[in-house]
Amino acid sequence: MRKLNRSIIRNLVNLVPSGIICLVLVFALFSYIGSIMGVPQMLNTIMHTAHDLLLNTVFYLMGICVITGAIGRLFVEFGVVNLLEKLLRPLMRPVFNLPGVASLGAVMTFLSDNPAIISLAQDRRFSSFFKKYQYISLTNFGTAFGMGLLVIVFMASQGFYIEPVIGLIGSACGCVVSTRLMQRFVLKLRPSFLTEDVSTGEHTEMAQEDKGSKSVFIRTLNALLDGGRTGVDVGIAIIPGVLIISTLVMILTFGPSEQGYTGAAYEGVELLPWLAAKLDVVFRWLFGFNDPHLLAFPITALGAVGAALSLVPTFIASGWADGNAIAVFTAIGMCWSGYLSTHTAMLDSLGYRELTTKAILAHTIGGLAAAITAHLIYLLYTLVV
Asked: For the packed helices 80-91 and 102-111, what is the interaxial angle rounded to 10 degrees?
């Protein structure tokens, strides 16, 4: 009994510092915002911003998710994914130092989201093609293309077409940096992984589902409905990120309205632009950003690319985002695509949780490389055109 009491006391003592730190940080943040905006106005702005994001951004993104999900499932059903996988196979080894079948993971995550690479990696027939250091780097490889179709379609819906393509190229370059850097990190910690296979399963082609008994119409209908249903799930999944992360980022990014602080949506204290202005030269040279407000996009993309996309219409309406910004947004949004919120779970499912910090570091560098590459390519494009 005495040991039990000691254990309870020890647990309480361990919890107290973290609880105090949490309370201090939350109180300090909202005290700072409330001291500038006023507490009633701050609370009203939070509610109005979250409500407007839900109605005008989340449902719009959900509509795109449903459409892209249906198209993606249709591509899977009728062999377009397999065709793309075969076309991309020759690039895998020389560019990413991965087996040719890894291209299937890139296509699947591009059409859906980051976790698609994990469900694929857990297939023994798929994983048998990889050495262990390559297998672990799939987390970085797949994440760099996560929700790619959604990001590109969204940017196109805002009236930009060549810029998302440039961003896709930048994201691919960032993926190379992230994947190969992760492989170096793994081999430095575990040199034996260079020659160790993931499994001893026979190298066979991925099994194909027997679809001969279904008509083309039924297969098309099932693919569209099943893909659309998946899109609804993705749309619902992005609601917390958009409402929580975007609301906080917007309050820290935007300033008061023309009438001052009224409690309306999208008012804020302009903290992030003030901080970004201190490093304005860095972001202007590296990313080509012409306004410090634009830094909010990559910061938000760290946690959720869907939430980051919700910032774009406001940036465009305010005149802050130009073609270069859209190209950089596409590159860094695709490459990062909320990796801080997915890397831990992804590596844990693969059984290598202890390598999470290395994966995050490699992908942070890869995302920055993607943004810089997109900026340079856009500058070259403007010179040519």
From this structure: 130
> Token pair for residue 91?
């690039």
Three-state DSSP class for residue 33: helix
The radius of gyration of the chain from alpha carbons, rounded to an integer in Å, stands at 23
The tokens for 370 are 């993607």
Nearest to 175 by CA among 296, 301, 337, 325: 337
Which position has the higher pLDDT, 199 or 334?
A: 334
Give the orientation angle of helix 148-157 with respect to helix 162-189, to 10 degrees.
160
Which residues contact residue 199 at a Cβ distance below 8 angstroms, ignoring those fewer than 6 apart?
124, 127, 128
Neighbours of 236 (CB within 10 A): 12
| Chain length of the chain | 385
Measured CA to CA in angstroms, residue 70 lies from 64, 84, 100, 149 at distances of: 10, 17, 26, 12
Asked if 342 and 115 touch (Cβ cutoff 8 Å), the reply is yes
Nearest to 106 by CA among 136, 80, 66, 144: 144
Give residue for tokens 């793994």.
Answer: 186
User: Could you count the other beta carbons within 10 Å of the beta carbon of residue 354?
Assistant: 10
Backbone φ and ψ for 260, nearest 5 degrees, come out as: 90, -155
Q: What percent of the chain shows pLDDT beyond 90? A: 34
Mean pLDDT, the chain, rounded, equals 83
Which pair of structure tokens corresponds to residue 68? 């892209």
Paired tokens of 127: 């994983």
| DSSP single-letter state for residue 207 | P
Q: Which two tokens stand for residue 275?
A: 């901080």
Q: What is the pLDDT of residues 318-375, one digit of tens each?
A: 899 999 999 999 999 999 987 876 677 778 777 888 888 899 899 999 999 999 999 9
Q: Which residue has the tokens 């098309």?
A: 220
Q: Is the pTM here over 0.85, yes or no? A: no
Closest CA to 308 of 378, 253, 229, 269: 253
Q: Looking at mean pLDDT, say which of 53-57, 103-107, 242-246, 366-370 comes out highest.
A: 366-370
